[in-house]
Amino acid sequence: xxxxxxxxxxxIACLLLYQFSWxxxxxxxxxxxxxxxxxxxxxxVTIAIKGKNTGTQSDLxxxxxxxxxxxxxxxxxxxxIGYETHEEAVAGRTAISIIMKEDRKKLExxxxxxYGQQRKxxxxxxxxxxxxxxxxxxxxxxPQQALQGRAPGVEVINNSSKPGDEPQVRIRGTRSLNAGNDxxxxxxxxxxxxxxxxxxxxxIQSMEILKDASATAxxxxxxxxxxxxxxxxxxxxxxPVVSYxxxxxxxxxLGETDMMNAARFIEMRRDANRxxxxxxxxNPDASDQKIFNATEYANIKKGVDVDWQKLMISRGYxxxxxVNVSGGSANTRYNIGxxxxxxxxxxxxxxxxxxxxxxxxxxxxxDRVKVGASxxxxxxxxxxxxxxxxxxxxxxxxxxxxYDENGxxxxxxxGDSQQPNPLLDxxxxxxxxxxxxxxxxxxxxxxxxxxxxxxxxxxxxxxxxSYNYGLFQGKNNTNLLIGGGDATATKNNASVVAYxxxxxxxxxxxxxxHSIGVTGLYxxxxxxxxxxxxxxxxxxxxxxxxxxxxxxxxxxxLNSSLSTWTILSYMGRVNYGFDDRYLxxxxxxxxxxxxxxxxxxxxYFPSVAVGWNIMNEAPLKGQRxxxxxxxxxxxxxxxxxxxxxxxxxxALQRIxxxxxNKGVLGYVPSELRNPSLTWETxxxxxxxxxxxxxxxxxxxxxxxxxxxxxxxLMPQTLPYSNGFNQVLMNLGTSRNRGLEIGISATxxxxxxxxxxxxxxxxxxxxxxILSLGDGRTADIGNAWFVGQPTYVYYDFKKIxxxxxxxxxxxxxxxxxxxxxxxxxxxxxTLIDAKNDRQILGxxxxxxxxxxxxxFSYKGFELSVVAxxxxxxxxxxxxxxxxxxxxxxxxxxxxxxxxxxxxxxxFPRPNANQERPxxxxxxxxxxxxxxxxxxxxxxxxxxxxxxxxxxxxxxRFTVGVKQPLIIAPYRQTWKGIDPEDVNxxxxxxxxxxxxxxxxxxxx
Length: 1002
Prior knowledge:
mainly beta; Immunoglobulin-like; 22-stranded antiparallel beta barrel; globular; TonB-linked outer membrane protein, SusC/RagA family; transmembrane; transmembrane beta strand; signal; membrane
């Protein structure tokens, strides 16, 4: 028995252990209630099992039920927008109820404002933010492109696909007729001028757009057109983190311009000669020999049919790489990065290459002193800045052969001296154009907390830029083959040295329910630009290009200039808040500009803004539907210098004249001086409503604004008897009114499953000229009209083509069937510029909108960025420059008018007209469009896999840029891309890109 007893105990123990183990593995149902701090049920909270792909959400009563397979070891994760993530171990329990805490970080979220930061709930101005993630959603070459369609009231229009070009940015429309309308850029607190291409997008942490007077008046004369604050990445406390981002994109032409092939061109030239009676259809071969030269006729017989666009355009690419190291301790933080970017265009001679480096250091000294610096450096190379090789390619005849029997380029493929072979530009050394730029932009600061709440800060921002431009055109370059002459060269150099010094004193104090913030500023900004240039002709050895100008036979141009401007500023701002409910901001800035004459140098720019946090009122504190509701209003005045340095002093120009028997040089005034010039001033009113619902699932803003700009800096026309045709004066008034709506929504939020988030924005702006001064209602030369937008198209209106059946009526107008029919506005059977030109439209859109849609499922994320403009008009030079219907050059493949095909869109070819009469009326089109700017699919490797590889994050992306354009100009009129500032020009063709990328963090 004693021997059996130990065995029985062992068997019983094994059975008990098995039973315990089996019970632990048996799935159980866990349920409970989820409440907030006020014991209110929370609806839609996500409850997931940590490390698993299973989960559920709380119901209308805040209750949940979830089956757990391993209750002994499972951990539940509770997540909800606006609340801190909560983890709770199951530990065998079947009932788990929790109270979730509000995420104070969200409630205390700060945004960058002028000269500081504010809690989002305390902001009284109109400010839109674009995060680094949003910037990375689309492949962009410069920061401005990242703003397109991302913020209401911000219009970003790409005016070229040429590598290195920058888009036009307008905040709440255009208000100035002659002065600048570009916004002020401020990088790490320092005003920034010049090209933003110098800043790699990978270094940007966020971009804030200041739009109303309350937000921009703090920048005075610099903020008249809005302000864009660019904040670069800084180091964070923690161990060093190394990150890499890289991408490579294949760039292709978006679409080929629809030019005539050989058969269509041959028939068009025949029709052009039929119109004037020079083509005999009864003897076509003899007629062809008369209207085609020997080379052309021989090529026709050979069946030559060349697509010159395909010869000129090849596949481009875009590559972008960046390495970054950041980290720090409690006292020292650092961020260091290197970047490389290259954009090779689809035209061989056009590319842009940039090398970037950035350094940011923040150092705390004791408890009250901080110092820091950020340095952005860039060195860039741009080839083919002014090259436009596609122009000659489009004009070249399809019946022209590019090469002879030996494979050599034919200089004049058609025998026409005005049509050189465009491929000659691609021969090494025939055309060299290079712009080298070096820039070092620095922001240094030192901050001392004198007493609690009182701080003094010194900002110093040196900015050094250097430009070196060279252009060489050999004697076989197409431009010289058309114009004739020896090889030419141009060499330009420029240096820009600027600095900003700012002294800031801030005081912030909270007394019970009263919060007070005071900011004082004294600053000075100065910029000096030194430019020199030389043009020569007759380079004896073409391999010297533009590097030995002294050997040239003739100096055709020599220039140099030096200009300096300074702005001295004082600013004061007071922020007051009561009980987080009522807000008040008062700002006054005084700017003194060296650009104006004595007595006119100073401008004063005040603003006032109020805010009401309705959500913090007692009746709304207990409810859970609305979580943000704030009403804002602002009114203020901002200014614009708008003139070049020394503009008030007039100018002289040198002229030769005869003195006795000698030729001498003298000087005469070229610009009248006007010492009375003063600031353009914009008075702005803004009303805004910020809102949020369902614990942050829906948030947004609605804004209305009215801006009135007076004392417009514009030229006043003078009688020619004065010796001058104009003088710059303060004349006229303009107005901008608009509405902006921005909404962000989390439609579906399931961290372990499918999620859908979206951002949508809409804006409309109406600009109007209210007066032009001196009682004038129109300035026809500049197309300015009282009561109309600041930019309009003023021209004859095409209403069709004169048909053969209307020959008698056409004769009364002095035209023939087949020619363009214009609207006779005053019905006097006479088309003249004074009475029959009219306002056709404006490039100003009736409205524009943008959206970003993000879908995620487990490790996958799909983002779609789209943008639309509606109700604008564009002018296309393609339909005036490449629609001559003359027969000397190739033509757009249009359906033109003939007796057999009575088209009402395009006129009849005519060999006696180099261009159709009133051809410019063919250029105007509806500019509305909808674009999908980018589609990106990303996959993030699972955390477990990444950790096993010794990494923190690994993400792969594939995206396509500009995959879809829907527009009347494209679908109806065979255009390529309707997006342009004012005129669809003949330049680098529009492109699309397929891009692959990787992001890694160690």
